[in-house]
Write a structure and sequence with these properties.
Length: 144
């Protein structure tokens, strides 16, 4: 059986590639961070992570970002790919690569002033998140 699948917008936008983490604790809860005031999408809850630098592999970027943002140490071998989201914002097209992480050293704290919450997967659906993130929730739910 075939289904209608209308074509997407052909707009040409810069591509931004971001790696993000579902940090999963021993109780199966996932960490989310609130984007601080002054940043685009301030107040929305996101998965910690950030942009890849030129020629930087996503795993390397994520280990770096988690150290910078949360003060935790992990290792590339502790990152398990979950899936991705691809979303067109007004100014750029985001490719969001998501990894699950269950092992790290240190206690996450918001080093850039961001609030943190540990939530069960069913609670994630209730959060105000960037539009790109919603498709990731099903992928995370399938994993946990
Ligand atoms: N880390 C992260 N970023 C996300 C998520 N969802 C989503 O749309 N984004 C967007 C927000 C930003 O436009 C981009 C991440 O960039 P970033 O965190 O490195 O940069 P930023 O805008 O916070 O600011 P800056 O570091 O350039 O100062 O990806 C998410 O779940 N986690």
């Amino acid at each position: 059986m075939t289904a209608d699948c209308p074509g997407g917008s052909p707009r040409s936008q810069p591509i931004l590639t971001v790696a993000c983490a579902a940090l999963v604790d021993a109780d199966g809860r996932v960490l989310v961070a609130q984007r601080p005031a002054g940043k685009p999408m301030a107040g929305l809850w996101e998965f910690p992570g950030g942009k890849l630098e030129p020629d930087e592999p996503p795993e390397t970027a994520l280990v770096r970002e988690l150290r910078e943002e949360l003060g935790i140490d992990t290792h590339e071998s502790c990152l398990a790919p979950i899936g991705f989201a691809s979303h067109g914002y007004d100014r750029f097209h985001l490719i969001l690569l998501a990894f699950a992480i269950r092992k790290w050293r240190g206690t996450p704290r918001g080093r850039e002033g961001q609030a943190l919450r540990w939530l069960r997967v069913n609670e994630l659906w209730t959060l105000d998140m960037p539009a790109a993130d919603k498709p990731l929730l099903g992928q995370i739910a399938a994993l946990l």
